[in-house]
Amino acid sequence: MVCFRLAPVPGSGFLLLCLVLGAVSSYALELNLTDSSKATCLYAKWQMNFTIRYETTDMHNKTVTISDLGAATYNGSFCGDDQNGPKIAVQFGSGFSWIVNFTKEASSASTYLVDHISFSYNTNDNTTFPDAKEKGVFTVNYRVALKIPLNEMFRCNSLSTLENSDVVQHYWDVHVQAFVQNGTVSTTEFLCDKDKTITTAVPIIPTTVPSPTKPVVGSYSVVNSNGTCLLATMGLQLNITHDKVASVFNINPNTTNATGSCQPQTALLRLSSSNVKYLDFVFAVKNENRFYLKEVNVTMLLVNGSVYSISNTNLSYWDAPLGSSYMCNKEQTVSVSGAFQINTFDLRVQPFSVTEGKYSTAEECSADSDLNFLIPVAVGVALGFLIIVVFISYMIGRRKSRTGYQSV
């Protein structure tokens, strides 16, 4: 039997299957699976998202990130029996399914295995894959073979990644006990290796946003077989609100790695560092003659050791004609969500039609254009005022001269 309900706060600790709204597009799942006697037999709580790469009808590659699990169902989840081990099965969206199987070790009565994980997606879903070349259901399987003590709760708050050529799976804030003894979830934790390396001293996080310093401006580029295909120069400042705590994080270009890809209709700039798993800027072509920033995805480690992940695939920033670059020297804000914004400084980007590795003529943002307009206007006003003063002085002098002539 599976019970479930909605809860408003991630990680609230309900012993029911909960779909919990997290930071916009990040969802926490919590499962309490019970047997026929209503005793807990399997407990799990975790967060996950998926990035899928597929080929389009015009023979290009495109990626889509699935982070909104929506109204998930859990058909097929069960506690296990004498022939089969426990299983967690989750279905969401249009044809997505995720299954993890557990098995007891034959050679040990005190441990079990997270055996294998499978993920299926359906490219017949025209909303998610509108231009997929191959239609149908595709499944990727991963052999995990992770050994866990039978009477302990497995915990891994750190980000874990499973990846092949087409699908990248991300997991974090994972808590699992697949063989619950006597209906009681264990309070003893078995940590993953990544959590063992994180210090147990949790830093003090300010409850208000500190006064931010201006970030260092970095220059980034993407190179393909034809040479440099994307250029970006910018200072980046990330503003995050997580669990009602606001924080500011500056991207340091000196410790940041830039990768990406360029296609005729889309271009990707991916930034990564020791605590930023990835920060993606995805550009797209619209109306065959302009480009714009369409999508931002980020997964990063916060100062308290938790993983923050968010995505927005429906943005509209940095619009400029193809063959030119977009420039904005003044501070701009890219609002990815109500909880995550990116401030940019001294920005210039060109994701398409880069020639000889150099920027083309820039289209300036309205803020810069207003500044450029105000300078000559101010000069003109000052010059006009000076002319008026000179004219008035001239007229006063002329009048005095005439007055003197008539008095002779």
UniProtKB/TrEMBL annotation:
Where, by residue number, does the polypeptide cross the bilayer? Answer: 373-396
Name all Lysosome-associated membrane glycoprotein 2-like transmembrane domain ranges: 375-406
Pfam families in UniProt: Lamp2-like_luminal (PF01299), Lamp2_2nd (PF21222)
**Does the record carry Zinc as a key word?**
no
Membrane topology summary: Single-pass type I membrane protein
Gene Ontology cellular-component terms for this entry are: autophagosome membrane; late endosome membrane; lysosomal membrane; plasma membrane
Q: Using the record, list the residue span of the signal peptide; answer none if the entry has no such feature.
A: 1-28
Cell compartments where the protein resides = Cell membrane; Cytoplasmic vesicle, Autophagosome membrane; Endosome membrane; Lysosome membrane
**Residue intervals of the Lysosome-associated membrane glycoprotein 2-like luminal domain:** 215-354
Return the InterPro entries for the record: Lamp2-like_luminal, Lamp2-like_TM, LAMP_CS, Lysosome-assoc_membr_glycop
Where is it chiefly localized? membrane
Which keywords fit this entry according to its UniProt record?
Answer: Autophagy, Cell membrane, Cytoplasmic vesicle, Disulfide bond, Endosome, Glycoprotein, Lysosome, Membrane, Signal, Transmembrane, Transmembrane helix
Q: Which GO terms describe its biological process?
A: autophagosome maturation; cellular response to starvation; protein targeting to lysosome involved in chaperone-mediated autophagy
Disulfide linkage? 156-192, 328-365
Recorded family membership: Belongs to the LAMP family.
Q: What's the protein called, per UniProt?
A: Lysosome-associated membrane glycoprotein 2
